[in-house]
Amino acid sequence: MPRPFARTAFAAAVAASLAAPAAAETVFPAKLAGHAYIPANSMIAPPADAPRDAWVSGKFAAGPARVDQPMSVPGDTGPWLHGSRPTGLRLPFLGQPLQGFSGVAMTRAEDGSIYALTDNGFGSKLNSPDALLFFHRIRPDWETGAIAHETTFLRDPNRVVPFRIAYEATDERYLTGADFDLESIQRVGDEIWIGDEFGPFLIRATLDGVVTGVFATEVGDTVLRSPDAPGMTGTSRPGADWRVPRSGGYEGMALQPGTGLLWAMLEKPILDAEGKPEGNFLRVFAFDPKAGRFTTQGFKFPLAEGATAIGDFNFIDETRALVIERDNGEGDPSLKCAGAPQPDCFPLPAMHKRVVLIDTASVDAEGFVRRIGHIDLMDIADPDGLGRLETVAARDLTGKFTFPFFTIENVMAIDETHILVGSDNNLPFSSGRQLDAAAHNEFILLHVPELLAAR
Questions:
Q1: Is the peptide bond before 92 cis (omega within 30 degrees of 0)?
Q2: Contact in structure between 418 and 451 (CB atoms under 8 Å)
Q3: I want to staple 42 with a disulfide (CB 3.0 to 4.6 A). Which of 98, 256, 340, 385 is the partner?
């Protein structure tokens, strides 16, 4: 079982040089067993009783100023990491983007469909006030490559959310990406639990989307907050007022069989009292959904060299779990730009995209969980040619399949030999398979018996 850590763990800063013990890690093979995707330009209609404002989304994501004319601003990959390459789609959108899948639940619906979550919309509180929040039940068809879906929109008609929301003065009070950034999901009995990055909060809701609880991150005597938490201002101090970096909240949240605990994993290292990352590891906290509170249990997930964040986290039995570990790159590494970003190359290609198996029953004296091994999502065997989409590359990919996306945020075990992995396509800002086309939202079925049997 995961090792408890003291309630005073956050009272003192942990030296940034403290890292996980170095150890050799087994790399297991992976073979493509199925490939399905939702086309990038897939929109859904808001509920009939949602504000009219929600019928055009992305009005604040198309640039520094509000844009009301649908499809008037070209989307691109942005200058920060990926060279501002065009993606072929235009903002604002008519309707709500279906995709941006950011988590899948271990427990399926009664009909066998998979609970999957769409994130906050366009990436921040400021640019997503017209992006509705919702989750789905999805059914990938590996024979046809299609993905069926049924969508449930989140709303707060009973005013449970403890702060002002974007659609405050409406009856149904549909939630938006200005309220929460949804990144992880689990079904517990007849309830849905969602991990948020802004608070970070845990959110409890009914199966039909009504919010029934919002829980701040209270660990011992400490409340962990991010700069996007309610009450933060321009004068709020990193390391003092907030310790969770922006976009560093609950990216993964796993439901543990046997205990029924939710284990919430932060996406990025928290900050020490001086505002510096406390180390190259991520904190994981245990939450008791029956009691509605965080426990004193937790552990640290050590990031491998080259990794910057995680994407999802799900148990496969009572102690072993899968974690997506990634860098910030996208695109095939054979097309890495030699100098300044150009239209025909990737300035920061995908290099570190893994599914890691951990053993939460094995935690060392410093609180680090044991990494058993991993598969490389950039090196998947495809001898049967099941890959459905072309990947631009300056190398021979015959018999190989890669998953070269910036954010890969969905992983779960399907059976004793297969796992499902899915991307978040950050519509319309990410590409990956092509230099100048928006990424589709892809799900793959991987045959990984050695990984799932490893101890």
A1: yes
A2: no
A3: 98
